[in-house]
Amino acid sequence: MTYDLVIGDRAYSSWSLRGWLLFDAFGIPLRTISARLYTDELPTLLQDFFPARTAPTMRTPEGSIVPETIAIAEELATRHPEAGIWPTDPQARATARVLAAEMHAGFVELRTHCPMNLRVSYTDCQPPEEVLADLARLETLWSWARETTKSTTPWLCGAYSAADAFFAPVATRIATYNLPVSAGAMRYVDAHLAHPSFRRWRAMGMVDGADQDFYRRDWPRRDWPGPVPLPARAVPGTESGNAACPYSGKPVTHSLELHGRRFGFCNAFCRDKTAADPEAWPAFMALYHS
User: What is the superkingdom listed in this entry's lineage (predicted)?
Assistant: First the structure.
């Protein structure tokens, strides 16, 4: 049996990203149930997840309802100690919990001025002093964590942990709004943008429903600063070199083209999420290199 996880729009729901990373980045199977923000979809869906009011909300295999990412992280860590959600070293684990707690509760000005949007990147968002103060606090926390845990990895407390999953939406905000941070902080942001689980989430977010007007800004745009995707594109028809979808094994109904070769999928979403970032999907890359 697997877990259920209620999520909002992947391109915009920063809390949903954090909750989903707690599964995908640690190899815990789940089934996502999505609802579009700013509609009746989410409150209607959550009627089956009482007492939850927000996304993400987890339902355990035996039916327990767990809203809020702090609670989800702790429950998953208890159930899956081998997954490494929190560091095993006591000092690193304490540091990671401090980081996750402050991220969960703070940085209101940054969240408000720079809502998560994975579909665009701007050259400048004119951050006010309150946002700059939040960025300075981030720099302090990130430097303190690395010094305290003596991390030699790209992550804050050694191996990738829940603390990093909690800061992933902030890393995307720095990328989206071209926020001013130090070179060291930007290396941490770059590590997030290149993380396999984040790339999968963003690839899905690029094709997961229409743009939400609430997140639209009129600032000048630039290219997304993360890894450049391979030049795949959706094409009409079902002609492809593979007879079955690399994800589901079902018959091909949709196709994409990459470097002159055609690959088939069982539905438009499978095709489009792959076209958005082919290298994010190991099953597709295994087919591509076969």
Answer: Bacteria
